[in-house]
Amino acid sequence: MPLDNLAKKLGVPKSTLHYRIKRLERDGVIEGYYAKANPLKLGYDYVAIVLVRAKYGPHYHERVGRKIAAVPGVWAVYYVLGEYDFIVLVRALNREDYMHKLERLSKMADIERTSTQIAAKILKEDPRITV
Amino acid sequence: MPLDNLAKKLGVPKSTLHYRIKRLERDGVIEGYYAKANPLKLGYDYVAIVLVRAKYGPHYHERVGRKIAAVPGVWAVYYVLGEYDFIVLVRALNREDYMHKLERLSKMADIERTSTQIAAKILKEDPRITV
Amino acid sequence: MPLDNLAKKLGVPKSTLHYRIKRLERDGVIEGYYAKANPLKLGYDYVAIVLVRAKYGPHYHERVGRKIAAVPGVWAVYYVLGEYDFIVLVRALNREDYMHKLERLSKMADIERTSTQIAAKILKEDPRITV
Amino acid sequence: MPLDNLAKKLGVPKSTLHYRIKRLERDGVIEGYYAKANPLKLGYDYVAIVLVRAKYGPHYHERVGRKIAAVPGVWAVYYVLGEYDFIVLVRALNREDYMHKLERLSKMADIERTSTQIAAKILKEDPRITV
Amino acid sequence: MPLDNLAKKLGVPKSTLHYRIKRLERDGVIEGYYAKANPLKLGYDYVAIVLVRAKYGPHYHERVGRKIAAVPGVWAVYYVLGEYDFIVLVRALNREDYMHKLERLSKMADIERTSTQIAAKILKEDPRITV
Amino acid sequence: MPLDNLAKKLGVPKSTLHYRIKRLERDGVIEGYYAKANPLKLGYDYVAIVLVRAKYGPHYHERVGRKIAAVPGVWAVYYVLGEYDFIVLVRALNREDYMHKLERLSKMADIERTSTQIAAKILKEDPRITV
Amino acid sequence: MPLDNLAKKLGVPKSTLHYRIKRLERDGVIEGYYAKANPLKLGYDYVAIVLVRAKYGPHYHERVGRKIAAVPGVWAVYYVLGEYDFIVLVRALNREDYMHKLERLSKMADIERTSTQIAAKILKEDPRITV
Amino acid sequence: MPLDNLAKKLGVPKSTLHYRIKRLERDGVIEGYYAKANPLKLGYDYVAIVLVRAKYGPHYHERVGRKIAAVPGVWAVYYVLGEYDFIVLVRALNREDYMHKLERLSKMADIERTSTQIAAKILKEDPRITV
C-alpha cells in the first residue's frame, strides 16, 4: 500500500512503478517482502559471531558451509580467506540456547575448532541495501 | 496484500490479525516493512568482515562504535569481548569501492588496527527471524 | 558463635536470623562453612592458570571438563568460548608437584594442548562473595 | 560447633584441638571463617576470566595489579609471565553489570588491552584447600 | 638488436660484449630472454600471497614444495623457517579463477592449512636484478 | 631475432606479428625486454619475505608503500588486507647485506613492526606470465 | 697452572684451595674443565633457536626431549610451559648444514611443528656462571 | 696438565700441540679456559627464556641488545628475525631473584613487551663445541 506514495515521491505513474517492480521480482533482484523485526524485543538476547576452522578436503568450503548453514539460529555463513575458514553469525535466546547451537557445530566431524565472539553490544544491524 | 492469505492460514479473523500487527508495530517489535534485495544482483560484489581494534578510553565502545556505524557500506557493527573490539560487516561494489570505505575506517584516530576478511563465498545471508 | 554478634549488628532477633540462615542452607545458597586458609603459609608455592584446548566431540565440554576437575590440585575449571576451551586453576606445592599434575592433564587423550601461565605474584585471591 | 565432632574424629582431646586452631589463627595460616555461598543462586550469572595487557613501567605489576584488584567484582588478580600480564577473575550479575566493571578496567591509562573469556559453564569452583 | 647500443654505452667492442653474453648464457647466469608483460593489462586482477602449513614428514619441504609449484597460477614458492612452511605467490584472473587454484592447493593431503592475503594494491613488482 | 622463428611457429606472416607486438608495446601490455638472470649465480644468497605492520594514517598505504619500494633490494611490495599491512620481497647478497636493508626499513617512523621470513629454499620463482 | 695465581688472589694457601676444588669436583658442582672456543671462528655461522611443539603422550617431555637432545648440533633443550613445548638451541656451519639438522627434527613422529628463529646477531653468549 | 695425555691421544709431540694451542689462542679461536659448573648445584633453580619485543629506531638492535646483555643473570642475547626481536637466556636463584631481573628489563624504555618461558626441565645444556 505504500505504492501510491512511492509513485508520487518518485514522480512516475503508478503503473510504470508497478511494472518495474514486477520486473525486478522476475529478475531476482527483489527476493520477497517482509517485516523487519527487532530481535531484542523478540527475546533474542545472545548474538554471537563464530570463527570456524574446518578440516581440509575436496570442495570442503561448499560441503561444510552448507552443513553449518543448516543449524537453527545460524543466519549468515561466509567462507573467508584468512586464518579462519568461515565466519558465522548466530542468534540465540540466551546462553543455554546458544550452547545447544554451538554443540551442533562442535559435533561436526568436519569442524576442527570454533572461536565464539559474544556481541556485548549491537551498535548497528541493518542489512537493508540503500539504493 | 498478503494479509488475507495470512489470516486464512493462521485461522484467525482478518481484523484480529490486523489488530495484533498494529500492536507489534506500536511496541517496536515490527520496525517496518521492506523488500529483500539480492546484493549480488545489485552489483555488490565485495563483502568483507572487518575485525577492528580500537584505542582504549572512557566509553570507547559507544563512541567508536557509532563512528564506525556511520561509514557508508557498513551495515553491522558488533562490540565483542575477545582479541578484537568490533566485528564490522561491510558491503561494497568492488575492490576500489571497498578501499575507499576501508580508508575511512583506517583514518579514525580511535582505530588501532583492522584485519579484513574477504568473503570468497556467501553460503547464507538471511537476517529474517523465524518465529 | 558469631551468631549473637551478627544478630545485634543487623538489628534482628537471634531467632529470626537463625531461621533465615537455616532457610539459605536448605535452598542451597549456603553450601557449608569453613576456614579460609592462606595457601602460601601451607606451602603451596606454585599457582598456575592453565589454558586448555580439547579435542572436539559430542558433549565434549562436559566429559572433558569433569575429567580435568578430578585431577588433584585443580580447584577451578571453566569452559570458555574463545581460542581455548577451558581455563583451569591449579595449586601445587612446588614445580615438581606441579609437573606431576600437568602430566596427568597432558596424558588425557581428549586434550590437544595446554599452555601454563605461572602466577609470579598473587595480588588478590578472595572468592568470598560480598552481599 | 563442629569442634566436638572434629575432636572425636581426629582422636585428640578437644582442648588440644582448640589450642592448635588458635595457633594456626595466630600464625596466619587460618585467616577467618565463613560460609561458602553458591554464586549462581545469588544471581551472579556472569563469570569472566579477563586476560590483561598493561603498559610497562617501573614496578608496574604491583601498581597496576592493585588498581585492578580494587574494581568491584574482581575477586582474583594474578600477575603472570606470558603473553599477557594479568589474569583476572570477575563475577557479575549479568552482562550489563559486567560491562560496567569492564568499563572501569578499560578506562585505566595503564591498561593496553583486555581479552574477556566468558565462562559458558563452571565445571568446578572450589578454592578450599584439602589438607 | 639493442646489442649495438649496449656496446656503445659500455664502451667495449661489440664482439667482446657478444662473447661475454654467450659465456653468461653458458654458465647459467642468463637463463633466457623475454618480454616483461603487465599482468593487470592482461586481465590478471587477483594477486594473492598464500601462507601454507604442511604436514611434517621426511623431506617434506621438497615433496610438498614441488606439488605446490605445479599448480597453474603459482609463480613463486618459498620454503621458509617460521610459523608457516611455504610462502606462495599466485596470480589469477578474478576471484572465481583464484578459488579454483586455491581448491587445488586445499585438496592436497600434505597441506594442513592455508591463509590467503589478497594484494589490494601492488606498489612494486619488478623481479629484474640490477647489476 | 626469435621473431622469424615465432612467426613460423604461430603460422602468421612476420609483418603481422611485428605489427601486433608493436601494438602491445604501445598499449603498455609489453613493458620491455630483458634477460632473465639467475639470482643465485649472481651471488644473491639471501631471499627474504618481510611482513610489515605500518602505523595508520590518511592514505598510509600509498605513502608507506612507496617508501618501502624505494629501499634497494626490495623488488616487490604488496599492500594486503590481513594481520599485516604489506608483504615485501627482498633480495640480498648475504646476511650482512640483508641487515643493512632491514635497518633501512626499521628506521622508518611509519613502520610499527616487521617479521622476516628467510627463504631456506626456493622451489620456484618465475614471474613470467604464460599466455 | 693458574692455581698458584688464584691462591694468591684469594689469599688462601694453595693446599686449601686444592682441597676445596677437589671437593667441588666430587660433589658434582664442577663438572670438568675445558677451553671456551669462539664458534664464529670455527665456522659455525648459523645459530638458530627453534620453538618446538610436540604431540602429547605419557611422559612425552622426557622421551621427546631426549630424542631432540641427541640430534648433532643441538646443544640446549629446555622443556617450557607456554605456547611451545621445547626451546632448542642449534649450532650449524651454514644454511645447508642447518637444513640437515632441521630435517632430523621434522622427521620425528612426536614433533608436530617447529618454528626457527635465526639469530641475525649474537650480542652475548657466555654460559659461564659468575660466583 | 691434561696436555701430556692429549698429546699421547692425538699422536703428536707435546711441543707441536703446545704450539698449535698457542696459535689458536692468539687467533681468538680459544678464548680462555674455565671450569664447567653445574648451575643447579650452585642454587640456580630458575632458568628462563625471555622473548623480547623492542621499540624500533636507528640501530636499535645494537643499542637495546647491549643494554639487555648488561643485566645480571642474562647470559645470552640473540637478535632474531621473527615475531620477536630478541631471545634472551636468563639464570636466577629463584622466582624472587628472577622477578628483580625481569623488573630491570621491563623498566627499559626501549622494551615494548616481554614473554617469559620458564624452563620446567633442562634436558640438555652443553655449549661446548665438538671439534
Report on the structure:
The structure is a homooctamer of 131-residue chains. Chain A is an alpha+beta fold. Chain A is built from 4 helices and 5 strands. In chain A, a hairpin with a 5-residue loop joins strand 3 (74-80) and strand 4. The mean pLDDT of chain A is 85. Chains in contact: A-B, A-C, A-D, A-E, B-D, B-E, B-F, C-D, C-G, C-H, D-H, E-F, E-G, F-G, F-H, G-H. Chains B and E meet through strand 5 of B and strand 5 of E.
Summarize the model shown.
Chain A is of the alpha+beta class and 131 residues long. Chain A has four helices and five strands, in the order ααββαββαβ.
Largest interface, by Cβ-Cβ below 8 angstroms: which chains and how many residues each?
Answer: E-F, 54 and 54 residues
Residue share in β-strands of chain A: 35-45%
Please state how the strands of the largest beta sheet of chain A are arranged side by side: 3-4-2-5
Mean pLDDT of chain A: 85
- What low-confidence regions of chain A span 5 or more consecutive residues with pLDDT below 50? none
Gyration radius of chain A, in Å = 20 Å
Helix content of chain A: 25-40%
**Straight-line N-to-C gap of chain A:** 20 Å
Order of helices and strands of chain A: HHEEHEEHE
Assembly state here?
A: homooctamer
Count of helix runs of chain A: 4
**How many strand segments of chain A?**
5
Sheet/helix structural class of chain A: alpha+beta
The geometry of chain A reads as elongated
Largest sheet of chain A: 4 strands, antiparallel
